[in-house]
C-alpha cells in the first residue's frame, strides 16, 4: 500500500508542476485570436440554445489560468476582476489548490453527501467553525451546503424552527440573499421575484447612509421598533449583510448595527449574519470580526471564497432531526480546497489595517481619485437618499466605481468595453448602478492592480467621450 501511495504522490507532484509550467505564457492580457473566434461564437450559440438565454459576455474559459489572469476559448487572456462573483479568491491555477483538487479527484466519490461522506466535509466544517470562534462568534455547529442559497435556506429554517414557526423576517432595503422562491422575496429586488408568488412577509429597514449617518441610524432603529411592536413574537430573524453586495458594496459601521442588534436581542429575535459575499474579502476574515460584533451572532452563512458553502449556529439553535438534509453537501474537491483556503487566509498577511486587503483597497481608492480628478465629466454628482454619493466605495476586496451618474445602460456598456479591452468586471446596485470588482485578493499584486486600473481609466474616458 505504501508503494502505491508513494507512486500516486509522485505522480500528483509531477502533474502539478507540469500544469504550472504550462501556464507561464499567461503573464498579461492579450486579445482574441481571429482563428478561434468561430469556435467561441459556436460555443456561445450552444450555450444560448441549451440554457434558453445568451451569455452576458463571452466568458467561456479554456481551463487555463494563472493568478489573476484567465484564458478564454477565443485565445484572449483577461484580468479576472470579478472571479465568478467572488468565488476564485486565489485566482486561477493556484498550484497548492490544484494539488489538493487532484488528490480529491483520486478518491472514490466526486460528491460528499449527508447520509454518507468521507473526511473532507468534516474537516471543512471544523475549520470554518474554528475560524468563526476565533472571530468572536460562539458557533457550535456547521452544516455544509452546495450553494449560498441553500446555506441561506438552511439558516432560515433553523431560525424559524427556533422561533416556533414565526412567519416574518426583518431585512434591509436593497439586500440580496439568494434566488430561491422564499429568498427572492426577502431580497429587496423586484426583478428577482417577477412572477413568483409571495411566500414570506418581510419588514424592511433602511440601510446605513454615509451622507447622513445619524439620521439613517435613527430611521433604521425606529423602523425596527415599529415592526417589532406591530408583530410581537412574529419575526424569525434579523438577516444582515454587514457590507451589502448586490445592493452596491455599501459597508455599514459598528455604530449603525449595534443598536439594532441590541434591540433584536431584547426581542429574542435571532441575529443572522449573511457573510456569503464578504467572507475572506474584507479587513478581517469575517466582517463581523472586523466590526467586533461576533458576540451578537446566532446564525452565520458563508460561501463563495470557501468553495463549499455552509450555515453555522449557536448550540441552542441546533435543529430537530429531519429539518436539514440533502443528497449533496458539496464536491470532494470543494470541501478539501475550502478547508485549505480558510487556513491560508488565517495564516497569511491579508488582514488588519495594514494587511494586503487594506493595501489593495487603498490603492484602488488612490487610482479612483486620480481618475475622477482627470475626468470629472464622467463622474457627475449622484444624489443619494440624503446627500451626494461618493464616486467610489467598498472595503478590502469589494470595490465599486460609479461613473456616468450610475445610469444602468452606461455602466453595462462600460462593463462590455472593459471585457473587450482585457478586464472582466460586472455591475451591482440599482438606481444608481455601479461598476463592481471582486478581484482575486489572495494573489493579486499591486503592479497588476495598476495594470487593471490603466485599462479602467482608458475605458471610462472612452465611454465618456461617446456617451
Walk me through the structure:
The protein has 467 residues and is α/β, with parallel strands linked by helices. The protein has two domains: 187 residues, Aspartate Aminotransferase, domain 1, CATH 3.90.1150; 243 residues, Type I PLP-dependent aspartate aminotransferase-like (Major domain) (Aspartate Aminotransferase, domain 2, 3-Layer(aba) Sandwich). A seven-stranded mixed sheet has the order 5-13-12-11-8-6-7, sandwiched between helices. It has a four-stranded mixed sheet with strand order 1-2-3-19. A hairpin with a 5-residue loop joins β9 and β10. α1 packs across α4 and α4 packs antiparallel against α11. The longest helix is centred in the last third of the chain and has 21 residues. It is globular, with a radius of gyration of 23 Å. The protein starts with a helix and ends with a helix.
Short summary:
With 467 residues, this protein is α/β, with parallel strands linked by helices. It is built from 14 helices and 21 strands. It is globular.
Total domains: 2
CATH superfamily membership of the largest domain: Type I PLP-dependent aspartate aminotransferase-like (Major domain)
Please describe the biggest sheet, giving its number of strands, its sense, and whether it closes into a barrel.
7 strands, mixed
Number of strands: 21
- Averaged pLDDT, please? 96
Cross-sheet strand order for the largest sheet: 5-13-12-11-8-6-7
Q: Based on the coordinates given, report the CATH architecture of the largest domain.
A: 3-Layer(aba) Sandwich
| Distance N to C terminus | 67 Å
Structural class: alpha/beta
